[in-house]
């Protein structure tokens, strides 16, 4: 072999060696980079999942907060609407009361309260009407009223109209007070006395009388009234559903405030509770005398 061929072979071998080393270096680099690229992909995928999870949680949390805000807003709106309705009803009631009081003031005479035996209100009215005619004092005794509220009560699946006295033990009389009229009233069987200062007959404020005589229903005429077979004059009241028995935690002896009706804002003391029905009876001071009245859990509140 010539020197020239020998040099060429050595040169070619060196070139091949360098190429092989370069190829090995490239393969080594690729092997090192491959796991790094795969790890980066895994990290990227994990990061994407974590971001999606956080986004979902944020969306859910935001929706919950929005729902709470909407719920609170709806609750506040409902409470505001109830307050507005109650204020409107109170304003309407006071307006009707003022108008009804003005009408009563136009009538002759003054209103007096006579006290009688409990349960004898109807008989006192009937007897007083008859005595006023017989003893010819109709020009002084104009009107005798036993205020009664009508309600519909369901019993044995049937509706029945019941009447409740608004002033048990009392009768209202519109009259001109003079000796003859006073004597007729005072001597009527069942009457115990006039209500007044130190036993003297004292006129009652017309506004107070109006609270018991004014119909609850604005569509009912104030003059509308009826007399039953016993001579009881029924003040024209709407036939509302009688108070049902409710479960409650009121106790005997507890002091409460009446929220509606002629005795609204008056304090009462619970005297009886029916353990089976939950119905309550309370004592109310009316014209200086404790008078029993029926109480409904929905129409009273505790005195704090």
UniProtKB/TrEMBL annotation:
<keyword id="KW-0889">Transcription antitermination</keyword>
<dbReference type="InterPro" id="IPR015869">
    <property type="entry name" value="Transcrpt_antiterm_NusG_bac_CS"/>
</dbReference>
<dbReference type="Pfam" id="PF02357">
    <property type="entry name" value="NusG"/>
</dbReference>
<dbReference type="InterPro" id="IPR001062">
    <property type="entry name" value="Transcrpt_antiterm_NusG"/>
</dbReference>
<dbReference type="InterPro" id="IPR014722">
    <property type="entry name" value="Rib_uL2_dom2"/>
</dbReference>
<keyword id="KW-0804">Transcription</keyword>
<dbReference type="InterPro" id="IPR006645">
    <property type="entry name" value="NGN-like_dom"/>
</dbReference>
<feature type="compositionally biased region" description="Polar residues">
    <location>
        <begin position="1"/>
        <end position="11"/>
    </location>
</feature>
<protein>
    <recommendedName>
        <fullName>Transcription termination/antitermination protein NusG</fullName>
    </recommendedName>
</protein>
<dbReference type="InterPro" id="IPR043425">
    <property type="entry name" value="NusG-like"/>
</dbReference>
<dbReference type="GO" id="GO:0006354">
    <property type="term" value="P:DNA-templated transcription elongation"/>
</dbReference>
<feature type="domain" description="KOW">
    <location>
        <begin position="249"/>
        <end position="276"/>
    </location>
</feature>
<dbReference type="InterPro" id="IPR036735">
    <property type="entry name" value="NGN_dom_sf"/>
</dbReference>
<feature type="domain" description="NusG-like N-terminal">
    <location>
        <begin position="108"/>
        <end position="216"/>
    </location>
</feature>
<feature type="compositionally biased region" description="Low complexity">
    <location>
        <begin position="18"/>
        <end position="38"/>
    </location>
</feature>
<dbReference type="InterPro" id="IPR005824">
    <property type="entry name" value="KOW"/>
</dbReference>
<keyword id="KW-0805">Transcription regulation</keyword>
<feature type="compositionally biased region" description="Basic and acidic residues">
    <location>
        <begin position="41"/>
        <end position="52"/>
    </location>
</feature>
<comment type="similarity">
    <text>Belongs to the NusG family.</text>
</comment>
<comment type="function">
    <text>Participates in transcription elongation, termination and antitermination.</text>
</comment>
<dbReference type="GO" id="GO:0032784">
    <property type="term" value="P:regulation of DNA-templated transcription elongation"/>
</dbReference>
<dbReference type="InterPro" id="IPR047050">
    <property type="entry name" value="NGN"/>
</dbReference>
<dbReference type="GO" id="GO:0006353">
    <property type="term" value="P:DNA-templated transcription termination"/>
</dbReference>
<dbReference type="GO" id="GO:0031564">
    <property type="term" value="P:transcription antitermination"/>
</dbReference>
<feature type="region of interest" description="Disordered">
    <location>
        <begin position="1"/>
        <end position="82"/>
    </location>
</feature>
<keyword id="KW-0806">Transcription termination</keyword>
<dbReference type="InterPro" id="IPR008991">
    <property type="entry name" value="Translation_prot_SH3-like_sf"/>
</dbReference>
<dbReference type="GO" id="GO:0005829">
    <property type="term" value="C:cytosol"/>
</dbReference>
């Amino acid at each position: 072999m010539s020197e020239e061929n020998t040099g060429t072979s050595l040169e070619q071998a060196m070139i091949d060696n360098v190429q092989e080393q370069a190829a090995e270096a490239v393969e080594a680099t690729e092997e090192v980079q491959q796991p790094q690229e795969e790890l980066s992909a895994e990290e990227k995928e994990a990061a994407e999942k974590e971001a999606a999870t956080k986004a979902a949680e944020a969306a859910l949390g935001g929706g919950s907060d929005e729902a709470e805000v909407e719920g609170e807003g709806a609750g506040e709106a409902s409470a505001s609407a109830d307050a507005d309705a109650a204020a409107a009803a109170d304003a309407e009631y006071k307006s009707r009361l003022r108008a009804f009081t003005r009408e009563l003031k136009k009538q002759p005479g003054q209103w007096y309260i006579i006290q009688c035996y409990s349960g004898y209100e109807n008989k006192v009215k009937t007897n007083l009407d008859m005595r006023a005619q017989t003893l010819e004092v109709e020009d002084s005794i104009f009107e005798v009223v036993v205020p009664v509220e009508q309600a519909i009560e369901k019993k044995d699946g049937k509706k029945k109209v019941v009447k409740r006295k608004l002033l048990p033990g009392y009768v209202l009389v519109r009259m001109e007070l003079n000796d003859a009229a006073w004597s007729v009233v005072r001597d009527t069987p069942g009457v115990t006395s006039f209500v007044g200062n130190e036993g003297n007959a004292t006129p009652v404020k017309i506004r107070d009388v109006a609270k018991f005589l004014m119909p609850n229903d604005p569509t009912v005429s104030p003059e509308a009234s009826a007399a039953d077979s016993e001579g009881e004059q029924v003040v024209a009241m709407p036939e509302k559903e009688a108070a049902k028995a409710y479960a409650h935690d009121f106790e005997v002896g507890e002091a409460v405030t009446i929220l509606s009706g002629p005795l609204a804002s008056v304090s009462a003391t619970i005297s009886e509770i029916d353990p089976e029905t939950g119905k309550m009876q309370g004592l109310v001071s009316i014209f200086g005398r404790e008078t029993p009245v029926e109480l409904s859990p929905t129409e009273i509140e505790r005195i704090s």
